[in-house]
Amino acid sequence: MPDHPDRYRFYGDLAPWWPLISPPDDYKEEAAWTVTVLQRAAIPVKEVLELGSGGGHNAVHLKAHFTMTLADLSPEMLGLSRALNPECDHILGDMRDLRLGRDFDAVFIHDAIDYMITEGDLRRTLDTAFAHCRPGGIAVLMPDDTAEMFEPSTEHGGEDGPDGRGIRYLAWSWDPDPEDTWIATDYAFILRDAEGGTQLAHETHRTGLFEAKRWIALMVEAGFRAEAIVEETDDDRTPRLIFLGHRAL
After folding, report:
1. 78 and 44, same structural domain?
2. Residues 122-138: pLDDT tens digits?
3. Which of 35, 41, 80, 241 places its Cα 20 to 30 Å from the Cα of 199?
4. Cα end-to-end span (Å), the chain
């Protein structure tokens, strides 16, 4: 089982299917709320660095409000994002050790933060966020799960594309060992090409699972004043805890 997304097919040879797995329009409502959260910084937010930006499906909505710089460790996902967001700067890099030599009004990490499965990797990522957050700025972190709220679950989805391709998937999340800091999600995909041929793909992803108090403690260690807020959503699911890091003026 791979232990980091640079070795997952999801973000490699299967990346061209991403717009059908998780379409950009699905991010519209959440992105609108994210704009209001990013604006909680003590300074006006104009420049935002998104770490783990993936295929750019958040940025396609956020770029109407901010100048976005997008960083990801998958060349394939960055390629999708460049086509969708050609006006944004794109950078190949790992959120654990990226250093751009400049700072931003805000640093945003969506669910890509989930791939930090140890406290050490999470802390390194928080150090990256702090290093790129200017005084008065904010870091907004949106993990899918915290230890207190996690429940095993399944979901399914997929879309048909205008080019004749289609995909359907099943995702099953569970916790093999409640004593460690990660959970597993098994993905099963049925991929249909434009000629009607089909293939199957499966892989298991590890994602981090930490208690909210550890999130807060690690953010404070990185230099932030930290807080947790409850997500506002109309989706039929339990709202997530969102973590905000404020850098002092």
Report:
1. yes
2. 999 999 999 999 999 99
3. 80
4. 43
At residue 156, the 3 state secondary structure works out as: strand
Contact 85, 60 (CB under 8 A): yes
Q: Look at the chain and count its residues.
A: 249
**Residue 81, by phi and psi: left (phi above 0), alpha (psi -120 to 50) or beta?**
alpha
Q: Do residue 85 and residue 47 come from a single domain?
A: yes
Which pLDDT score is estimated for 3? 55
- Among 52-61, 81-90, 215-224, 232-241, where is mean pLDDT lowest? 232-241
Q: Structurally, how many domains does the chain consist of?
A: 2
Token pair listed for 72: 């990801």
Query: How many whole angstroms separate alpha carbon 205 and alpha carbon 15?
Result: 15
Could you tell me whether strands 47-51 and 104-109 are parallel, antiparallel, or unpaired per DSSP bridges? parallel
In whole angstroms, give the CA distance from residue 138 to residue 41: 5
Q: Which domain holds residue 160?
A: 153-207
Q: What percent of the chain has pLDDT over 70?
A: 98
Tell me the whole-structure pTM to 2 decimals.
0.95
Q: Are residues 129 and 162 in the same domain?
A: no
Same domain? 100 vs 180: no
43: region left, alpha or beta (phi > 0 left; psi from -120 to 50 alpha)? beta
Q: What is the pLDDT of residues 112-123, one digit of tens each?
A: 999 999 999 999
Continuous segment of H or E residues that includes residue 216: helix 212-222
Instruction: Tell me, yes or no, whether 232 and 123 share the same domain.
Output: yes
